[in-house]
Amino acid sequence: MAAQKSEKKKPGSWFYQWFLNNKVTVILINILLFLAVIWIFASVSWVFQPVGDFLAVALPPILLAGILFYLIEPLVELAERHLKIPRILTISLIFVAVFALIVWGIVNLIPIIQNQTQQILDNWPLYWKNIENTTRKILNDSEFATVRDQINQQLQNISSEFTKQLNSSISGWFSNIGSAVGAVTNVLLVLGTAPFILFFMLKDGPKFKGYLLKFVPTKFRHSTGELLTAVNLSLSNYIRGQLTVAFWVGVMFSVGYAIIGQKYALTLGVLAGFLNLIPYLGSFLAIIPALIIAAFTNTFMVMKVLIVFMIEQTIESRVVSPLVVGSKMEMHPATTLILLLAAGKMFGLLGVLLGIPTYAVVKILVSRLFDWFKTVTGLYDEEEQLGLVAPSDDPTAGGTPPTAEQPKQEQHSPKS
């Protein structure tokens, strides 16, 4: 009778077996409900328009302050822990030093970069004309007769399209002078607000994690704290690594171009440092304008530019990047390139710059969520499914039952 009672009769209803007692169906229903919630939110997106407007105003200075926070925080921690300098005093001294550095850059570097950039823009039509003439001379060879017309047509299309876009942009700037003033105002507001946000980030940075965890239920505080630590470490490694490497790349290119006598050395170096923020592609994009300018100086200058590029790449890959541990994001190169292409297509330059750190944060969140899903559902417990669970040491859990002599032996065993 006991055996008959322990055996439960499975319900014969097909609806119960295929829908109510089927994990796959339950998961699909949950996905459908999730998509339905997204559709509902999209239908009432006007409700969230004020939130979008607020983020459009508040997010840029917070992002700028966050980037500067990850750069300055190690100095503040070093001064506070090892040199025993008060945190407020360290932050104030760093602000004064940064302000003095900015003033020095505005007085000394900005005029040089502005002058060189203006010269490049003034001479660019001449450079392009020389490129066209050189290309036509090469195409006059009989070997290129079959593709001569197509290449000439493409060069003309590129030149006309470039001129058209430049004219439309200039006319748009003058016609939308109000928008231009608004954009300049927004930039000034960001630059004026970010230092105040940065100051309080540096001042209250160590308390921020504990403050956030107060709003998390006690059951989830430990896991949430580990998640925040992982996200913070990933962002700090990437931002510090990329900006440090980009700075030294700009310095190396500027010094190298100045040594070989390349025109516009400082501007080309700054451009190389900025483009180096794009992984794998930045340095190769930065060498293109340098080679074009060198090509119209002399052939020997092209060789010297290539030598500078090879030396810079060697120093960067063998010295700078290995020393800057944070530059390693543990991402496959193919994943990085696909991510850059997709983010650039969807969000432009901002997507190219912020795509990889955003991906790193999302990857951490998804991996933690997937670990939680595996633990809760038990769908990935391979040992239990294959019957490979090790037998328990507890005699009451199964196996050979204890004999009657065992308790007696334990009673007479001497106490340690």
UniProtKB/TrEMBL annotation:
It comes from the Bacteria. The chain crosses the membrane at residues 24-48, 54-76, 88-113, 177-202, 243-260, 280-309, 337-362. InterPro entries: AI-2E-like (IPR002549). It is found in: Cell membrane. Residues 407-416 have a biased composition (Basic and acidic residues). This is AI-2E family transporter. It is a multi-pass membrane protein. Keywords: Cell membrane, Membrane, Transmembrane, Transmembrane helix, Transport. The lineage of its organism: Bacteria, Bacillati, Bacillota, Bacilli, Lactobacillales. Its main location: membrane. Residues 389-416 are annotated as: Disordered. It comes from Lapidilactobacillus achengensis. Belongs to the autoinducer-2 exporter (AI-2E) (TC 2.A.86) family.
